Amino acid sequence: MRIGKVLITAEQIDAKLAEMGAAITEDYRDKDVLLVGILKGAFVVMADLARHIDLPVELDFMAVASYGSATKSSGVVRILKDLDQEITGRHVLLVEDIVDTGLTLQYLLKNLQVRKPASLSLAALVIKDGIDRAPLEIKYEGFHIPPVFVVGYGLDFEGKYRNLPYIAVVEDTE
Ligand code: IMP
Ligand code: MG
Fold it and tell me: Ligand 1 pocket by C-beta < 6 Å: which residues?
């Protein structure tokens, strides 16, 4: 594979996260919010988004693996690490790096809703357009991109390139 065109620069990401953080700060002003990052991909978004939120938020993480090939999700999700804390009665904001088929988030929403949080909303930095997916309400969304495979800013190809500060298209995946 090789890294192709840069779709979203580090500066664009930071500006977008600042906007999303300001909106979250406004909406959760009088609430006690728990940010839940979905590992591994969301670790970068989580770190930067959290610092754009001007509230004493708490953070937790879940680690999931979805079965499938390197570039295609199967919708079968395995929880590798659950939340450390209970979320009953809490305002929970799930933070995801990218929404492709939406199957991972759908599974997680169902799984977390059972625990009866006071509210459960979604934030995602990247949303792929042109994908036939079940409706998902993403309250805080970053960028819409075409349905191409991308790496960087937490997103990987076979475990690598999560540390790129920008988001770029992957070419020649064979
Ligand atoms: P979904 O369940 O199809 O929405 O995919 C969710 C997960 O697949 C994301 O959290 C990513 O970990 C991974 N993923 C989806 N698209 C990409 C991509 O373009 N690059 C890297 N990882 C991706
Ligand atoms: Mg992944």
Answer: 41, 66, 73, 96-104, 149-151, 155-156
